[in-house]
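Supplementary Methods. Inverse-folding protocol.

Structures were first reduced to a discrete structure-token string of length 179. This string, shown here, constituted the complete conditioning input.
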């Protein structure tokens, strides 16, 4: 599939270690801004509605944003919007694609686990994610913010990623390009 992380046949497997981080000590200003915006947008409700956060409010992080539609029976996640910076790193825009199509399985399974956790908890989650293949690695942070009904039924997920300037090159060396 286009945009899938992975290497050539016979390459070392992709190893992923995801560490859940607390939401009270966010060191990335873009992620902190979006979490604050999410909290303001929900007011006294469990979740902000799906249209509460506008693209113009996300200017500083817009290229590193994903918006996913949550489908049920069975639970699935479809990219509704793929940030341009993320699409560049992955080598293609996956808008309209189901997360279940992604490869390699380690990457896909991590995303599905994290997205499922955000849906089930109806609460933001923040992770530090280290991906490695041999001696090459790439590290980034990703927050997942559920959007939906005031009662807490999750309809969409908004994700924002943050990484160091050398991340795109490191990710490319891990195989994050269209093959």
């Amino acid at each position: 599939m286009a945009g899938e992380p992975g290497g050539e046949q016979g390459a070392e497997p992709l190893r992923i270690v995801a560490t859940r981080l607390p939401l009270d000590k966010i060191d990335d200003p873009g992620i902190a801004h979006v979490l604050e915006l999410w909290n303001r947008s929900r007011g006294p409700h469990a979740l902000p509605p799906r249209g509460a956060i506008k693209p113009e409010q996300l200017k500083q992080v817009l290229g590193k944003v994903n918006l996913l539609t949550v489908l049920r029976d069975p639970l699935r996640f479809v990219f509704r919007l793929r940030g341009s910076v993320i699409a560049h790193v992955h080598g293609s825009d996956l808008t309209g694609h189901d997360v279940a199509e992604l490869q390699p399985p380690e990457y896909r399974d991590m995303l599905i686990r994290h997205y499922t956790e955000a849906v089930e908890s109806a609460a933001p989650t923040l992770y530090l994610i280290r991906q490695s293949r041999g001696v090459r690695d790439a590290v980034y942070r990703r927050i997942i913010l559920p959007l939906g009904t005031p009662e807490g039924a999750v309809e969409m997920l908004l994700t924002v990623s943050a990484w160091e300037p050398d991340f795109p090159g490191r990710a490319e060396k891990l195989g994050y390009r269209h093959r």
